[in-house]
Amino acid sequence: MKRILVLLAVSLLSTSCQAQEHPGAEAFAARAAEEYGLDAAEVMDLLASARFKQSIVDAMTRPAEAKPWHEYRPIFLTDKRIEGGAEFWREHRDLIEEAARRYEVDPEYIVAIIGVETFYGRITGSYRVLDALATLAFYYPDTGNDRSDFFSRELMQFIALGNEESLPLREVEGSYAGAMGLGQFMPSSYREYAVDLDGDGRRDLWGSLADVIGSVANYLHRHGWQPGQPVVNRALASTAAAFGEISTRDFRPTQTVAEWQAKGFTSSPELDPDLPAAVMKLTEKERFTCLEHGAQWPRPFGRAEL
Question: What is the pTM of this model?
């Protein structure tokens, strides 16, 4: 009798581990069917295998991207990563040059993005994308900026992408936010910007370097990349500059250089006044010496860039 009870308990435990109910799952499935033409029953079956991950919630509440610039910069701009970029460029020069020509994008930025995102494919993420997107869609943490709807849509896009590209949705791994492949594309970006540069009939952002490189280049091209133009310029801020209008989240260029200049920010060197621009404030550290005691301490200061 004891053996039967133990086996029964194990069986019940196994069943509970196989399926997980998420708040709002049925409404999500209905919405996925209406907006993306997905099968609601198949969506529910897939969601039952999605797992809530506390580690993803924790990571979202303290993302590395929220660090001030002087802490964020040394994580990515290292000698090892720079040397790796030079090696990656040498090894795949033909592919990089082909994509750069086809999509009119400066090749060094294609290399840099792959390097920053995944260290040239060495770090592509260890979370199941299904778990990451489901966790953030149904259990988004209270950060003062609810993005659960964004991740709900990305989860729908992920399921649609699986149908289009024959992806094993229960196995695909990526970042804690659901970004995938060497370029770390979110599902919506994968569907919209990924390209089949190697011509094999699939857009593979893991195994095909041609597709990876071409997709990064196409992403930049589709967003209006202008080859040979500067990415950033240092801006000089007046004492009355409108620092309160600098966004900490959205860096899309919604104002012109002339409009920013009227608000106290002047580009150095000068830029076309009609050029769309955004202002970023990079927080750095500078060391000050106390003359009385000879002590030094770091003090943060801001630098604006257009």
Answer: 0.83
